[in-house]
Structure prediction request, 191 residues.
Amino acid sequence: VVNEGVIDQNSTNARVWTPIGNLNQKYTGTFDGQNHTITGMTVNAYEGGLIGSSNGTVKNVIIDGATVTGSYHAAGIVGTGYGSIQNCTVKNSAIIGNYAGALRGYSASGTNTGNTVENCTINGKYAAGGLFGLVTADGKNTISDNTVKNCDIYCEVPAGNSYNGIGEVVGRSASDKVVIENNMTENVTLH
Prediction:
């Protein structure tokens, strides 16, 4: 059983977390955290996050004090995703990867609304954003009504090709089909 005993019932006794799903076997369900908090999650994986790769929905979960390292895509919620993230919070966390964002390192589609990111440090080698590192549009991809505040965002190589970039909400949007609207940022510093 993967992750058995990794997080106790109070979600405060965390050890190294193995992300749910990967590129070969994506998570396809609905993960409803019912507004519970996962504290101290530590991830070191190719696709780093609570969920590694997802075509499903993640909603109503709070990630607090996480350290997530993804050798490719990294995020507090989903490393690589084609599904939706709704009403989630990532706070007091450090996210590091080639493409890094607090919610998702790489996003190809989905409806992503009502999320909050605060007091995070996000470091992407090629793209880094408060919510998402790299965004494309293999399908409908909407990013609206989210909040990013009190974050430091770093990008080592913010220029060079169409997939590189740094931003307060999205590091790089590589498609004109992505809808990014009504997001609020406050005290976000780009480095």
